[in-house]
Sequence to fold (72 residues):
Amino acid sequence: DKIKAPLKKSNGGKLPQVMTFQNYANLLLEDERYDDAVKVCEKAIKFGLDDKTQTGFEGRIERIQAKQKKTN
Fold:
């Protein structure tokens, strides 16, 4: 939250792609921390970030939840 405004300002009014969200969500998924992975994706959506995939973070959330259902 603290760096959102300066990042936008230095990037012409738009947030740059921040791979940390994708990477962290993937790490949490590997550790089967599904709810935490979803929260990371939701935070990225809140910031207006795009993960540069066809379905975005919304699709990533759906895939995480589908995997969670398979393991339960």
Q: What stands out?
A: The mean pLDDT is 91. The two ends are 34 Å apart (CA to CA). Residues 56-71 form the longest helix (16 residues).
